[in-house]
Description:
By secondary structure, the protein is an alpha+beta fold. The chain has three domains: 6-170, DNA-binding pseudobarrel domain (At1g16640 B3 domain, Beta Barrel), CATH 2.40.330.10; 181-285, no CATH class; 291-411, Restriction Endonuclease. The chain is 35% helix and 18% strand. It has an eight-stranded mixed β-sheet with strand order 2-5-4-3-7-6-1-8. A five-stranded mixed β-sheet has the order 9-10-11-12-13.
Amino acid sequence: MKKGYLSEYFDGVAIKRLAAVEVDTTRSNQHEFNATREMLDFMGRPSGRERLPTKFIYLCDEDGDPLVDDASLTLYDSRENQPHRHPEYRFYFTDNEVVKRASEGDLLVIAKRRDAGMLVVVAENGSSAASQMEWLFGFSQDTYPRFSVRAELENDQDRVGFAATFILESIGVVVEKTQDSFLDTMLSKFGGTFPSTREFSAFARSTLQDVSAEDDVDAAVMAWMEREEILFRTLERHQLGDRLRGGFDSEDVDGFLSYALSVLNRRKSRVGLALENHIEHALVALGIRFERTPVTENSSKPDFLFPGAVEYHTTAFPDAYLTMLGVKSTCKDRWRQVLAEADRIDGKHLLTLEASISTSQTDEMQAKSLQLVVPHAIHASYKPAQRRWLFDVRDFIELVRSRQASAPATTLV
């Protein structure tokens, strides 16, 4: 096991496309997956029937949260009573809500977790979720008629960075990244509480003195985000420890649920604001004129407007020199919200940290004149044809800088 890599969480993983015989009850009641020799190398070969506690998860782009069902897989040799024949192992599964949602062609992932039990993920065919499962676990084929298997999960592609962390946590794998060497400093500076997101983002950048937007803006944004995420988890873990040691009244179920929900909501809201904070800092450092969350039509508030609201609301200022940037840590279907945030600007831009968005989604973005901006380090998660279209942060900065340099001075207000 190598810390910071997928091997820290999994012994092995297998992936295939679901066949009709596996999920279509009108054609079969099989309820089984055939196990391959490579799968058994990390699963083991039980002498009898082995029941494996399993978390089933269904992912699609339309649903905000995954569908989760706790069930089991039973690994057994279907030829146990035929000693003259080679063993043939299968995974038997009972009916559950995830399997009921599954369809032929959906992506199936079966992984053995290091902590306990099994993980089965079904991702809708053609979805970003399916693309992300392939990228996360290091598979690159378009079709998998039988299981493809990986048990050595310590290559460079298996490092659990910022983008991989979000995908893992979407399937219930908790990634604990802390740096206790900063804890005393944060406790002294913030008094044991969380400061505003702006203040916390600035503190995260201050711990990376050798990182600057001027040197490499794409690398800087990723470094700042990764550092802030680690510092946040460090302080959060300390706070949670204090709260849990204080305990909850045995009757105060609502109090416990409310506290847990507040923790989850803080995590979700903070990431998006942190990304905006670091983009804002980079724009200032690079001398780009902009305004953050100005008001446009219908009280819309785009995340960033270039050069600013005064130019946008001045009809004499040419549309061609206006630029809008939406910022979302993850897109899913929310990217369409950006399309309505600045009517004067036809071609909009959206910056995200989401890895491996599906081709169907990026094709639709192009059709809607939305240019996706992704830090350069995440480009490798996309397919080659998508990469030729993607912007990185530097590309976007250069576009805005060229527009601001060539804007007619007489139209500026």
